[in-house]
Design a protein that fits this description.
The complex is a heterodimer of chains A (124) and B (257). With 124 residues, chain A is α/β, with parallel strands linked by helices. Helix content of chain A is 48%, strand content 19%. In chain A, α1 links the parallel β1 and β2. Chain B has 257 residues and is mostly helical. The relative contact order of chain B is 0.09. The chains are: A alpha/beta (124), B mainly alpha (257). At the A-B interface, α1, α3, α4 and β5 of A face α3 and α6 of B.
């Protein structure tokens, strides 16, 4: 399972990578915004995308929309991990086709639950 | 303070204005048109003088404020620059603390895992020994293993202890960043009160010149829905904001998630 973690703060990327490792996902790569992430996704064989929303350059929601528009990426499971908590934003993310939404600050248990739920749904 | 003088002069002006208006009315009632016209001219003069004075005050206060903000170049000791630097320091300190903490945690996890896995293996062996299922040769192996385990445990736990202490110390950023943030906050409050002062002075000038400002057009900030807003402060008090993960989950499940 190859996972791309996108966040503009390196500490948050590190936290998420550590939590993922604890869940048994060791093959992770990082990008610091959507515009670096998108080419990585397009040229790499990623199975899962974890992205923040608020980033300079391309934001997470824009990245999600680009992913859903891309024929080869449109089925990629995407988990949003973000401080953005407005109801409109959550609805917008759902409409854009997000698979899970975790608000910061979050716990390891929440991240685990959402990831498991996504794979249950994808596999099932 | 310039603000106080200005208040005095403006109330003086108002008093004079009221007096002269009364006198004007009296003279008109007595058909003293020439006197009335003279009075109007006097009033005009007083107003002009007060106005010049007010504008003088305003200009001086503006200069003072600019000097106090230390915005007029010179390169050093600029309040705004200081705030920028202070907040950059906060970002740097918090990042450093987070990285230091994660370094130490990443260093500690394998040590703890090591103890956990080795002790559970030894436990299995120990059970076999207690159940008298162990050959003497195997037991000799086990004692060696236990010996090694004890050595390793004591060095691992020493390292764990020191890592935990380092993690504790890495939290000192809270004190330092807290002080910087408090300083920036008080600077912002200071700037705000000076601006309010300037606005109220400008208000007096408006009053004397009879200038009416149209309500400034403040179009609702067009927010790009793609742009994030960052963390919501006081999320619990805002209706359009999900206060926590449960709220998010409820909202998503109402959308059929």
């Amino acid at each position: 399972m190859k996972i791309l973690v996108v966040d503009d703060f390196s500490t948050m990327r590190r936290i998420i990578k550590n939590l993922l490792r604890d869940l048994g996902f060791t093959n992770t790569q990082e990008a610091d915004d959507g515009s670096t992430a998108l080419p990585m996704l397009q040229s790499g064989d990623f199975d899962f995308l974890v992205t923040d929303w608020n980033m300079p350059g391309m934001t997470g929601i824009e990245l999600l929309k680009h992913v859903r528009e891309d024929d080869r990426l449109k089925d990629l499971p995407v988990l949003m991990v973000t401080a953005e908590a407005k109801r409109d934003q959550i609805v917008a993310a759902a409409q854009a086709g997000v698979n899970g939404y975790v608000v910061k600050p979050f716990t390891a248990a929440v991240l685990k639950e959402k990831i498991e739920k996504i794979f249950e749904r994808v596999d099932g | 303070m310039a603000a106080l003088e200005q208040d005095d002069s403006s109330s003086e002006f108002e008093k004079l204005f009221a007096e002269k208006a009364k006198e004007l009315l009296e003279r008109l009632e007595n058909n003293d048109v020439a006197g009335a016209v003279g009075l109007i001219q006097d009033l005009q003069k007083v107003r002009d003088e007060s106005l010049y004075q007010e504008i003088g005050h305003l200009t001086r206060a503006l200069h003072e404020s600019i000097k106090n903000f230390k915005l007029d170049g010179g390169g050093q000791g600029n309040d705004i620059d200081e705030a920028h630097e202070g907040l950059a320091y906060v970002v740097e300190m918090t990042a450093k603390a987070a990285n230091k903490t994660m370094d130490k945690v990443e260093e500690s996890l394998p040590l703890a895992e090591d103890i956990a896995s080795e002790s559970s293996e030894i436990q299995q062996e120990w059970k076999r020994f207690l159940n008298k299922e162990m050959q003497p040769a195997e037991f000799r192996e086990l004692t060696k293993r236990i010996n090694g385990f004890l050595d390793k445990t004591s060095s691992n736990t020493r390292k764990l202890n020191s890592n935990l202490n380092d993690i504790l110390l890495a939290q000192d950023f809270q004190d330092l960043t807290g002080q910087v943030i408090q300083k920036v906050t008080s600077m912002v409050t200071d700037v705000e009160s000076r601006l309010v002062n300037l606005v109220s002075m400008a208000g007096h000038v408006d009053q004397m010149t009879g200038i009416q400002h149209e309500e400034a057009d403040t179009p609702e900030d067009e927010v790009d829905p793609n742009k994030g807003e960052g963390p919501q402060i006081k999320a619990e008090e805002k209706e359009n904001v999900a206060a926590n993960q449960d709220d998010v989950d409820d909202l998503l499940s109402s959308l059929g998630f």
